[in-house]
Amino acid sequence: MWDPLPLRRRIAQRLCEVVQPEVWVVDDVSFPKCGTTSLGVARQYCGALGKRANCQVAVSVHAATDAASCPLEWELFPPEEWAHDDRRHQRAGIPEQAGHVSKAHLALGLLDRLAAQGLTVPVVVADAGYGRSVSLRLARRFLEDAGLSYVVAVPKSQQVHGPRIDHLIDQAPPEAWQRLSCGDGATGPRLYDWAAARLPAVWEFDGDEPTRQRRMLARRSTTRPDEIAYYLASAPLDITVADLARIAGCRWKIEECFQSAKNECGLDQYEVRRYVGWYRHITLVTLAHVFLAAMTVQEREKGVTRPTHPSSWISPRQKSAVCWQLNPTVALHGARTQ
After folding, report:
1. Domains of the chain, CATH where assigned
2. Where are the alpha helices (DSSP H) in the chain?
């Protein structure tokens, strides 16, 4: 008998030493199942199938860079229907303290556990599936109170100091949009048009001399201008739009990470039904994936230098409460022609 938790702690520490992650990404993955006795199985949305189905769902935190990503910690999501079923709990060997909580609360617990190990949290990134959650809005306050930076995708209906975020982005001046890469894809740089604006400080939380600035961010397709993704961020004062775009783009590495873990490490190839068995399997998969991720980083870093990013200009316009960060090329051209 062996406890998988101490091993995962050692794996996470070693991973951060080797990979030196730029972001920690919160996400979840689903495992389709046929029966009803496997740990945490229930009819719920299954991302692997793109519909509601009988499956297990695991929440994870991944360490990611432009070059690679790898899971740091996992937690199996306990469906609500399991919460009061003592018989299923006993058959699956679930600890008494493991009750039903939201995915966002599971993610917060993982972040807290990793931080308690002394690991440095660079920037926390999450997609809109978490950004629309009420509990993650509370989590953003938790991250700010802990002095952590984040870039979280949100739905277009997200309110920002009153107005919806999509209405505020509609007011962005043309010179606020910058064509930037958010990372390399299969066919080259993933180019989008990006716009960002600084949000007003909140004295009750930020004090007289804030060290971080809240921002809203938008990513617009270059071929379909009506396709826009929205983000809220809290980051150091001197961060640029290019940096925010690159950080937001790191989340896509997680999709590759899940696929790699399934294809090369057998992430979804298991038939265990009990609590300890599932966590042992996920721990050994993480160990194998860390080795592959470390090898990937070492190969890509040979002779590779990170490109520098242009600084952003601050818009002098005061038509709204936000302050747009302008494309430096457009701003410089306008200054020369005046």
Report:
1. 4-337 (3.90.350.10)
2. 4-19, 86-92, 103-116, 128-131, 134-145, 165-170, 203-206, 241-249, 253-265, 275-300, 328-337
